[in-house]
Specification:
24 helices, binds adenosine-5'-triphosphate, 51% helix, 2 domains, cca-adding enzyme, domain 2, alpha+beta, 455 residues, binds magnesium ion
């Protein structure tokens, strides 16, 4: 690559002309191009910026396209009928094209050079509002990572690199712009972004960017739980959840997001690790296949170890099974939501998935049919399958229920007989052995989930 240097603009700036980079307009959404052209025609500067430029240069297909411009939000609104202004902390324009939204942000300045038209507010080193307009150079340096500060110029299709992002793309490295400690203090969520983007891109986190995790990770406890929920969705439900999870753990950041999960894993609960990793891998596979995923299932997976242990604890204190599971679920959800604000519609489903787990151990005729017709049966059954790692018995239970679903109802009813256990037959091969054992243990299992949590 032979970039031109423009020392008049910024000593470190590189302009990579159109023929020397791989971005093609074919890979940019029509909506984003329309916004860029419209701003340009109106006499404004207009750039594609951030993750989209990064991902295009890496040969990927960005899921969203962000635009940066010197037009103010009000000026942007004046150009597009399908435009609404959003955000107080970070004011920007959304230009809406059916299901696609193009985010248009005005260049942010530092305020040091008399920027006008907005305000910036910093509390204890944290940026709580950032609405001072500035130049593109200032806009570049307030971004988080160097690979996220590349600009694709619609005027001549060149890429502008103010901070060395092209080098980092080549090195496959996440480097922060500026002083790492200060940048994390301004916004602790950048630590999670480092881990997430490194996992997604298959990059390493530069030593200087990773070093402060140990001392500054706890600042994440001050981040807004609603924002951490959004970030956790991007970590675990965007197609690379398993890699994100491993990266978070390796960075020592998991404990700030999911303290109970991190504690259990640190204790060496290998069955839980297997369950969590398999749950994440299945989620990634579903996303890759274009299938739907529910956050509730995954959060139920992540918190399972804690809820199971607490439920057993309450049962040991004499609470009956239902009450013990309910108490455990309420406690675990309440603790977790102090960190990550999981919306009620999801926690409700999580509680149901957990509460149904002990009921899989009750193989009586009536109860089997009742459980199968429960609206949450499918999710709870998928969850049971993940628990195969807990013990051989759990694996057998999973096989039994899998088989039971494939039998026509009359055959299942016959197999279950008068409330007993399916007899050995060619239809219930998988069920026979575990079912016999289970019958003997039915009572303790009914009250206390037997040995299922002992792995
Ligand atoms: P992806 O969309 O693939 O998750 P992204 O880098 O595009 O990654 P976004 O959250 O869409 O992430 O942010 C768009 C751009 O805004 C980033 O590339 C970065 O330049 C800037 N940005 C986002 N969050 C921050 C932050 N917390 N601090 C500084 N800059 C940020
Ligand atoms: Mg993005």
């Amino acid at each position: 690559m032979n970039p031109e240097y423009r020392s008049d603009v910024s000593p470190a700036m590189r302009i990579i002309p159109r023929e020397q980079h791989s971005i093609s307009r074919k890979n940019i959404s029509k909506a984003a191009l329309r916004v860029l052209y419209r701003l340009h025609e109106a006499g404004f500067d207009a750039y594609l910026v951030g993750g989209a430029v990064r991902d295009l240069l890496l040969g990927g297909h960005p899921k969203d396209f962000d635009v940066a411009t010197n037009a103010t939000p009000d000026e942007v609104k004046g150009l597009f009928r399908n435009c609404r202004l959003i955000g107080r902390r970070f004011r920007l324009a959304h230009v809406v094209f059916g299901p696609e939204i193009i985010e248009v942000a005005t260049f942010r300045g530092t305020g040091e050079e008399g920027g006008e038209g907005g305000d910036r507010h910093i509390v204890d080193g944290r940026i709580v509002r950032d609405n001072i307009w500035g130049s593109i150079e200032e806009d570049a340096v307030r971004r988080d990572f160097r690979v996220n500060a590349l600009y694709y110029d619609i005027a001549d299709f060149s890429v502008r690199d103010y901070v060395g992002g092209m080098q980092d793309l080549e090195d496959r490295s996440m480097r922060l712009i500026g002083d790492p400690e200060q940048r994390y203090r301004e916004d602790p969520v950048r630590m999670l972004r480092a881990a997430r983007l490194a996992a997604k891109l298959g990059f390493t986190i530069d030593h200087a960017a990773a070093a402060p995790f140990a001392t500054l990770g706890n600042l994440l406890s001050e981040a807004s739980p609603a924002r951490l929920f959004d970030e956790s969705l991007k970590l675990f439900l965007a197609g690379h959840g398993l890699k994100s999870f491993r990266m978070l753990e390796a960075c020592g950041l998991l404990k700030f997001l999911f303290p109970a999960t991190a504690r259990a894993l640190e204790r060496g609960d290998e069955a839980l690790r297997a369950l969590v990793e398999q749950g994440l891998a299945n989620t990634d596979a579903r996303i890759a296949a274009g299938k739907s995923v529910t956050p509730a299932f995954l959060y139920a997976v992540l918190l399972w170890g804690e809820v199971r242990d607490q439920a057993h604890g309450w049962m040991a204190q004499g609470f009956d099974m239902n009450e013990a599971w309910q108490r455990a679920a309420v406690h675990v959800v309440a603790e977790q939501c102090q960190r990550v604000a999981i919306p009620r519609r999801f926690t409700f489903t999580m509680e149901e998935i957990w509460a149904l787990q002990p009921r899989f151990e009750q193989i009586h005729r009536k109860r089997v049919f009742r459980l199968m017709s429960h609206p949450r049966f499918r999710a709870a059954f998928d969850f049971l399958l993940l628990r195969a790692h807990e013990s051989p018995r759990m694996r057998e239970l999973g096989e039994w229920w899998n088989h039971a679903q494939q039998l026509p109802p009359e055959m299942l009813a016959a197999a279950l007989g008068g409330g007993g256990v399916p007899p050995a037959s060619e239809h219930t091969v998988a069920a026979t052995a575990p079912a016999r054992k289970r019958r003997r243990r039915r009572k303790p299992a009914g009250r206390g989930k037997g040995d299922s949590g002992g792995a």
